[in-house]
Specification:
Elements (H helix, E strand, L loop, with lengths): L2 H9 L4 E3 L1 E8 L5 E5 L5 E3 L15 E3 L9
Antiparallel strand pairs: 1-2, 1-5, 2-3, 3-4
Length: 72
């Protein structure tokens, strides 16, 4: 996924993950996009300091599935 696709999916309410379901992309109350490790609550920015390069390979981001198995 591209940076723009990730942001659009998060803004649309989809569960976007990086690498595995334990890492979720969120938008915090300040409007920052973060990669959150759900087990500990630790987070890093979605991008590097320039805001242009993803902290992860684009093909490692994916939209997760709901409990019913449908993409969300």
């Amino acid at each position: 996924m591209t940076l723009q696709e990730i942001k659009a999916a998060v803004d649309a309410g989809h569960r976007v993950h990086w690498a595995n379901p334990g890492y979720r992309v969120i938008r915090d109350r300040l409007g920052q996009y973060l990669i959150l490790f759900t087990r500990t609550g630790d987070a890093i920015g979605l991008t590097d300091q320039t805001g242009m390069r993803l902290n992860g390979a684009p093909d490692e981001f994916f939209i997760g599935e709901t409990a019913e198995g449908a993409a969300q």
